[in-house]
Amino acid sequence: MTNDDTASKPSPLPAIRPIVAVGGVVFRGEEVLLVQRGRPPLQGQWSIPGGKVDFGESLEAAVQREVLEETGCIVDVIGLIDVVEALPDGAGEGERHYVMVDYACRYRSGDVKAADDAQDAAFLPLAEALDRVAWDETRRAVQGALKFARQEE
User: pTM of the predicted model, to two decimals?
Assistant: First the structure.
């Protein structure tokens, strides 16, 4: 028998924590930049560009990086829209709890080209963009970003 009690104890389960992610509602004039998701969740559906925040990365830097990686566009962050959650509902394996921080952004430069985990990307007229997005929270983010875009004009 050893004095080391840890040898007989089971290892603790990994901590399950929310995942912090960012999204960018990017305006170019009256058009909104959308991506068609190439991977789950919501694969094949249209949304705003975004993704997970890297350790040590500021939220604004994360949204600029994600927009660039997914669309090839360089943007300026012009305002914080909202913070929303996607909670697990217990219906599927591998579910996650996301805390999403959405920003309004203004297009600065770059040619739109789907990359990274986006299968398509395009600037669309506002009404068409609102029709294409799959999730009500995303639709609310686009509408919430309008006040920032209009202040910029």
Answer: 0.86
